[in-house]
UniProtKB/TrEMBL annotation:
CDD domains: TM_PBP2 (cd06261)
Gene3D superfamilies with a match to the protein in the record: MetI-like
Gene source species: Streptomyces longwoodensis
Annotated ranges, domain ABC transmembrane type-1: 91-301
InterPro entries, alphabetized: ABC_transporter_permease (IPR051393), MetI-like (IPR000515), MetI-like_sf (IPR035906)
Subcellular location: Cell membrane
Keyword Transport: yes
Stated name of the protein: ABC transporter
Transmembrane segments: 35-62, 91-116, 128-148, 168-187, 233-254, 280-302
Protein family according to the UniProt entry: Belongs to the binding-protein-dependent transport system permease family.
Sequence segments annotated as region (Disordered): 1-20
Length: 318
């Protein structure tokens, strides 16, 4: 009687890591894709994001009116914008509009997203209608609301009992309210879409277990749905913050920074400096300030929320 011996497989014969699949399905080899796959996106990002950012950073230390050669002036541009009262006021206005956007859009988009993830009658049709503003550009939305809110021919002129003299763009408080309302009308559907997808990914077994324990719909929402939407909430808030800090078209078309400079936010002030006053050095300094501010605030949100420590593939589970 002979005994067969099998030798250990060599390194070349060792199979790659295999992901288990249900019975009847073939195994799939799992391997990490090489750097070549990321090369096109990396080059695109470097060419259209990193390179312009470096050029803006260099230009912020120069004086240039768009003609001739830029002249090195050191920190003169930075000193001027930091001593400019309009610039300081624009920073506070930018932070105010950003905070209003987060405070208003977050609860609205959560409630609407959870509702859109359900199985109500006519839900799909109503959701499709609600998402229409998401398909429009910021310019088109601003032109639309500028016409609707025109103090002479728009809705305020027909409803003086509600809007008073009808000039919503003539006072700072009402002008800021219009900007916050228009941004909410346009961008809430986008964040609603984020929460809709996240809510549909929540396992039904959690709600079934809660029903067995006697939890009602409201307790399920606050103790299951909201905790499970934590990751999506942080992502949505970061997008709101970055979007709020870089808002431009809405102010340009609706208020043009007025009345006076009461709605002149930092992005619009950058436009005024660079393309109206032809002070591209100061405009570049303001643009760099916006980039740095958006990055710092986003990192703070990620760190405080603990989002950077979450490693689970399941939504809301750390």
């Amino acid at each position: 009687m002979t005994t067969q011996t099998t030798s250990a497989p060599t390194a070349a014969e060792t199979p790659k890591k295999v992901r288990r699949r249900p019975e009847g399905s073939s195994a799939v080899l799992v391997g990490r894709p090489g750097f070549v796959w990321a090369l096109p996106a990396t080059l695109f990002f470097a060419l259209f994001a990193i390179a312009p950012l470096i050029m803006v950073a260099v230009l912020s230390f120069m004086s240039w009116n768009g003609l001739g050669s830029p002249q090195w002036v050191g920190t003169d541009n930075w000193n001027r914008i930091l001593d400019d009262p309009v610039m300081i006021n624009s920073i506070w206005l930018t932070l105010l509009l950003t905070a209003l956007g987060v405070a208003i859009q977050t609860p609205l988009s959560i409630v609407l997203g959870v509702w859109a993830a359900g199985h109500q009658r006519n839900r799909a049709v109503l959701s499709a209608i609600y998402f229409i503003p998401l398909l429009l550009s910021s310019t088109a939305v601003s032109v639309l609301w500028r016409a609707l809110l025109d103090p002479n021919f728009g809705i305020p002129a027909r409803a003086t009992w509600l809007f008073g003299d009808g000039n919503l763009f003539g006072k700072q408080a009402t002008a800021i309210g219009v900007l916050a309302f228009v941004s909410t009308w346009q961008f809430t559907p986008f964040h609603t879409l984020i929460y809709q997808g996240a809510a549909r990914a929540i396992p039904d077994v959690l709600y079934q277990a809660a029903e067995i324990d006697g939890a009602g719909r409201y307790r399920q929402f606050f103790h299951i749905t909201l905790p499970q939407l934590r990751n999506s909430m942080i992502t949505s808030m970061i997008l709101m913050i970055v979007g709020g800090l870089t808002t431009f078209e809405t102010v340009l078309i609706l208020t043009q920074g007025g009345p006076g400079t009461d709605t002149t936010i930092s992005a619009y002030y950058m436009y005024q400096k660079a393309f109206k006053s032809f002070d591209f050095g100061a405009g570049s300094a303001i643009a760099l300030c916006l980039v740095v501010a958006a990055t710092i605030i986003s990192l703070i949100v990620v760190r405080v929320s603990g989002y950077d420590k979450m490693r689970s593939d399941m939504e809301g589970v750390s």
